[in-house]
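hi! just following up on the protien thing from before. the input was this:
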Amino acid sequence: MALLGLPAAAVQLDGAWMLGGISAVLATASAGAVSQFTRQKAERARLEIEDRAVFEQAETDRRAQHDKEQAHKGQEHAAEEGARGRLRAALDSGDPQALAELLHVELLNEDFPVPVVAEAEFDGLTIVEIEVTLPELDDVPEDRPNVLASGKLSRKKIAAKDRVSIYEDLRRGIALRLAYETLRVLPTVQRVRCRGTFTETGPRGEDVERVALLLDLERAQLGEIDLDRADPSTALRALGKFGCTKKGELREVG
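and the predicted 3d structure came back as:
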């Protein structure tokens, strides 16, 4: 029997070829599905490994940070115990030199906004005289950070009078802080005298030391001052003398 004028054998062969083609397509699709499943399984395994690695790294970082914080606390505790031990030893010895060395270490640990050079001398165990080299006007920056309305950061020039005012408070604040720390660290001390000095050129070109700040503070007066809130200018006017011109230049006080 012929179909469309072709021999039956040709149709059968053609049909067999068509069936074979369909089988090949099904086999290819099945292999593709298996391959996609394998890739998805491998990707899930890779992500699980990555997630586990991220978690383990986070745990390692957390433990390291915890150990670091604990070590820092231990160092602080050891430092505090050491300071208390040195204080007890100095007080037991009754040696002003030992107290002076202890005070020197404590004052070095103070976080002042500018470098401070100070020396302390003891008059017995109850009076301390501190001599501090006062900072200069150049230690106060001429401008300050300023955030614009657009959110950009710029620098804004500080007016001359404001800069001098900042400078005055800086020096006065340093003197008050030195006196406060001395009375805090050494319970035997009842009075602190602080002399702020500066150096100027004499008539012959020599360096001449002048006194521009005098502070005389007793322990009883300290309780009347809240150093965290007090205006250092007001506090120093009540407790001592300070010489400074309107241009920020130091002048001698008697």
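DSSP finds five helices and seven strands in the chain.
Strands lie at 117-123, 127-133, 143-147, 153-157, 191-201, 207-218, 240-242.
cheers
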